[in-house]
Write a structure and sequence with these properties.
5 strands, 6% strand, 61% helix, globular, 296 residues, Hemerythrin-like domain-containing protein, Hemerythrin-like, mainly alpha, disordered N terminus
């Protein structure tokens, strides 16, 4: 960020104005442009070569060609895909329930699935707020809205979880649908904005090698069920081994990690999120599976 003074002359009156600027553009204009470009599901992909996003002249936006994986196959978008898949799955279950009075089994199953989703979203936002965005901010001027949106979404998710946990036998899931719809309507546009703005900028200002440490941190520290969601919904193939192996090869993860870690994470996620909602849809009693014993 640089400072410069301009002294525009209007007729015989000289006014001195002081401007904070980024590469010749007033900072207020950069902020306004950043806010205006975030248009939810209608957000257009940012031009990453626009230097108004550049925070440090030592790091130009010239790294995009180093990323060989297509943008749509990036792990960030894959992580968003599994959130969208969870929302779609819950919505489908709720719509099919309609005005059907809930049983004890229905309630326990829905509460179990929501607990998994809650853990997943908490982890996802923490990864972005504490890892990805601070990492990017060293070189990129990001719109503040990309992180400030998380607070409002979490308020609705907290309210939603409280309502789900308060469900009683013979109540209706339709009582929860209004809050659920608001939550979804906040989440989906936000995911799109990150994909259209933050991700292209990440690839422009950082090399894949530089970003590896963030990916490694996420894989090491994220809850197993959050990672299980990622692997389960990868390419929409519901835990398909070939899809997982393909992504592992893309990210340079050794093949044997699938058998040691990822396969079990998929199984645990399916048991904790997918099967409870499937039981609700089919009207069958849901019986939680015993926790898997870890071999190591």
């Amino acid at each position: 960020m640089y400072q410069h003074c301009s002294f525009p002359i209007y007729g015989t009156v000289r006014e001195m104005t002081f401007h904070l600027s980024i590469y010749g553009r007033p900072l207020s204009q950069v902020w306004a442009d950043s806010t205006q470009m975030l248009r939810g599901l209608s957000t257009k992909q940012v031009n990453p070569s626009d230097t108004s996003f550049q925070a440090d002249p030592r790091f130009p936006p010239d790294k995009t060609p180093l990323w060989k994986t297509p943008l749509e196959q990036d792990g960030w978008i894959r992580a968003h895909d599994c959130i969208r898949a969870e929302l779609d799955t819950m919505k489908t279950t709720f719509v099919r329930l309609g005005s059907k009075p809930l049983t004890d089994s229905d309630i326990r199953a829905i509460q179990a699935a929501f607990a998994v989703h809650y853990t997943h979203i908490i982890d996802h936002h923490e990864n972005e707020d504490a890892k990805v965005m601070p990492f990017m901010s060293s070189r990129v001027k990001l719109p503040e809205k990309l992180t400030s949106d998380h607070k409002e979404m979490m308020e609705y998710l907290e309210k939603l979880v409280a309502m789900v946990n308060a469900l009683e036998p013979r109540s209706w899931i339709k009582d929860v649908l209004g809050v659920f719809k608001t939550y979804v309507d906040l989440m989906l546009p936000h995911l799109c904005e990150e994909e259209k703005v933050a991700l292209p900028l990440l690839r422009a200002y950082f090399t894949p090698k530089e970003f590896e440490k963030i990916i490694s941190s996420i894989l090491k520290e994220s809850p197993p069920l959050a990672l299980g969601s990622f692997w389960y919904w990868l390419e929409g193939k519901r835990g398909d081994k070939s899809a997982i192996m393909k992504f592992m090869a893309q990210e340079g993860i050794p093949w044997f990690v699938y058998y040691l870690v990822f396969k079990g994470q998929v199984a645990d996620y399916e048991a904790a999120f997918v099967e409870p909602l499937k039981a609700v849809e089919t009207g069958k009693p849901w019986v939680p599976k015993p926790k898997r014993k870890l071999c190591c």
